[in-house]
């Protein structure tokens, strides 16, 4: 039905009406006092959302841009970095690091399984000469619905002492507890079309004082993604380059909504949505792709038996019920489908998606 | 007056209501057939606007991102490049090129004056060993209101034969004739908040077959701005990274409007707006910053006598008439003000701005 689509993909996620209407306001000049007021409010609320006193810088880019900036600003050519790879996004950060001439060592797990923190501990403990300069981890692996044990891996990084921890929090920020200051996370990247509940186009990077120390000697080439000018201008509530003013309007609104709901409530809601989804999928006798102990509160991947084509499930859900699910990426295409429950999603949405899924399965069998 | 601002800055430019309302539509999935349809239409219309059969790639970034991508995808570390500098943006592209380790030779002119094509001819003709790999030119220098003689400079580049021509068309595209295929322009960068008549957040790069040849051996590090994947996915009407879906809605609408107006009418309108503005400023006995023969159809910089503080003019225009003018950048702050007449601007807007300017000047003297 026209204009009736319900997005249950891991981004873009549903956008509240208030944020949509804010997008339609006429842009103002980005060098104006009015815009600086928005910047000031938004920056304060971003720190609240990130549970940090660190800088949280705002880029015009996708989440990949945030992660690229998070990697290339704090390292030197040839630096040894560990990259956790258990899905499409972990692989991508290894590609970024390789593209810039870093010495990338991959610690992998099968897609659908979490990274093993012990493997990180072993490699980090063996590095007595402190040559490892960064550990890059995807918190919630969007491609598989796996939540990696960032807290434990980060503890090993902290024991190492030298390496920075660089985190892809694209689908975890605003969905699961990520206390940046309490854990001491150095660099955390995220994107607007996820837990932020607004359309794509903005990306965020939080940067710790330790990372800024490393910035001083970092030598990878960069200009648009050089975070120094972002930091300098952020202190004056402005930006180095023209920002997407209308997305800032929407961000202002959505952060206000998040603050009104409260972090604990947001996390509890996502946990509940995840549990409802997983329980229902189990009730339908469909296998879950990620194990319970490593399940992402943002997205649930379902791995139907071979007799059921995952793309067929998506197609019926889309055509008959106007619900958009995500498919599998790369080698998982046709093998899994993914139910997004991230951002502006309530219990009713899950109930509705599950009811539609049940009817779809009946049709397929 | 609240919500009554009239933007006469060189970006963001005024946005038509139709495009604003398109922004407020709920995002759809960017991997959907519906989004690919938008991509297909938008890509075709971008080629029309660029007067080219070259790829016109779409990035989530500001215009600076487009120019960085346009520089770093086609060159090798240490390559000799000529950069035309006669304003803030020319200077910026020299900074980008330097940041990536290119061997940058600057050909400059005073801010407010156009680049001298003869200087380019001399240096290019002297380069018999064809070591110059690119010439980077800002077409309309937003900081000064100068339109550089791209056509002549490009002719010298073509006679050189080896060098690519890389053009910042951020405030010229959609304002003045820029026949990419006819002139053989290799790389042309632009941004959505200018002639495109939509808010900031999208950037565009057109790439010639010759530039793609250079891409094969280019070795500057890049990932988010690597144009190869943009080209590959554009052929399938999709994107390598999550695009700002809502800005695409607006772009779709604004390109339809531009097509309906027609390129010749758009250029004629901008020429008329420029002439009206310059004639009126002369009538008010205020000196123009750029000479008539090198005046940008996008923006007019006015250089009032020392007795009149340019910032004071802007302040009264803003407070009393709700008209936003741009100030001078860098060393020109307080010395010039700039009247934007780019994009969704009609004769009435100029009439109105000039009447307000006249009243403002009376107040100041």
Automatic annotation (TrEMBL), chains A, B:
Pfam families in alphabetical order: Aminotran_5
Gene Ontology molecular-function annotations: alanine-glyoxylate transaminase activity; L-serine-pyruvate transaminase activity
Protein name: Aminotransferase class V
Listed PANTHER family: ALANINE--GLYOXYLATE AMINOTRANSFERASE, AMINOTRANSFERASE CLASS V
InterPro entries per the UniProt record, alphabetical: Aminotrans_V_dom, Aminotrans_V_PyrdxlP_BS, PyrdxlP-dep_Trfase, PyrdxlP-dep_Trfase_major, PyrdxlP-dep_Trfase_small, SP_NH2Trfase/AEP_transaminase
Residues that bear N6-(pyridoxal phosphate)lysine: 194
Similarity comment: Belongs to the class-V pyridoxal-phosphate-dependent aminotransferase family.
Start and end residues of each Aminotransferase class V domain: 28-329
Binding-site positions, substrate: 338
Biological process, per Gene Ontology: glycine biosynthetic process, by transamination of glyoxylate
UniProt keyword annotations, A-Z: Aminotransferase, Pyridoxal phosphate, Transferase
Cofactor: pyridoxal 5'-phosphate
